[in-house]
């Protein structure tokens, strides 16, 4: 990540060992809950609909103990340089759904704002397409939220036929 190659196995992380047995509810320690809470605040400030990996990585910037502390000491990482490297992850992401990285799975259902961005049109134009029946949309059960299937976005596109 950024200028660092981080070998977590060298720090004792065993990727092949399951962390919990099947059927046991995971209970996170208080420090882990604090990281997730921090990541949620970062995601909210970022305007994201959910917490992404880059939000969790950014949440670790201030950590000085545990695995993150070990990484910082081993690689001379400062909190500021870590945040800068995390910010570069999002900037380096290929265009997709609003800068979605190639490693992220494209969601099948989009909000009207996300769908409008994919089509490169104003959200009110997209809402007009929904009202007129040009674009199929779905309402979440018992909610006001509307979602549009990604594959239905092609319904509003018409092929350009070259004139002879």
List keywords for this structure.
elongated, mainly alpha, 5% strand, 164 residues, single chain, 6 helices, 3-stranded antiparallel sheet
Write the layout of secondary structure elements.
Elements: H1 30-46, H2 53-59, H3 66-75, H4 79-91, E1 109-110, H5 112-119, H6 123-132, E2 138-139, E3 146-149
Antiparallel strand pairs: 1-3, 2-3
Number of strands: 3
Poorly predicted parts: 95-104
Distance between the termini: 53 Å
What pattern of helices and strands is seen along the backbone? HHHHEHHEE
Report the sheet-strand fraction. under 5%
What would you call the structural class?
mainly alpha
What's the average pLDDT? 76
What fraction, in percent, of the residue positions are helical? 25-40%
The Cα radius of gyration reads 21 Å
Biggest beta sheet summary: 3 strands, antiparallel
Total count of helical runs of at least 4 residues: 6
User: Strand arrangement, largest sheet?
Assistant: 1-3-2
Overall shape: elongated
Textual characterization of the structure:
By secondary structure, the chain is mainly alpha-helical. The protein is 40% helix and 5% strand. Among the domains are: 27-91, no CATH class; 109-156. A 3-stranded antiparallel β-sheet has the order 1-3-2. Strand 2 and strand 3 (146-149) form a beta hairpin.
């Amino acid at each position: 990540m950024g200028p660092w190659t981080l070998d977590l196995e060298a720090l004792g992380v065993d990727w092949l060992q399951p962390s919990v047995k099947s059927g046991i509810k995971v209970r996170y320690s208080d420090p882990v809950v604090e990281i997730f809470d921090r990541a949620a605040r970062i995601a909210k400030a970022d305007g994201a609909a959910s917490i992404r990996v880059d939000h969790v990585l950014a949440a670790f910037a201030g950590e000085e103990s545990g695995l993150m502390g070990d990484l910082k000491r081993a690689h001379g990482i400062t909190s500021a340089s870590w945040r800068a490297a995390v910010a570069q992850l999002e900037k380096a992401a290929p265009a997709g759904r609003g800068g979605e990285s190639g490693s992220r799975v494209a969601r099948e259902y989009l909000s009207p704002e996300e769908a409008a961005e994919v089509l490169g049109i104003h959200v009110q134009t997209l809402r007009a397409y929904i009202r007129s029946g040009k674009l199929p949309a779905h309402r979440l059960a018992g909610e006001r939220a509307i979602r549009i299937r990604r594959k239905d976005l092609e319904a509003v596109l018409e092929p350009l036929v070259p004139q002879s």
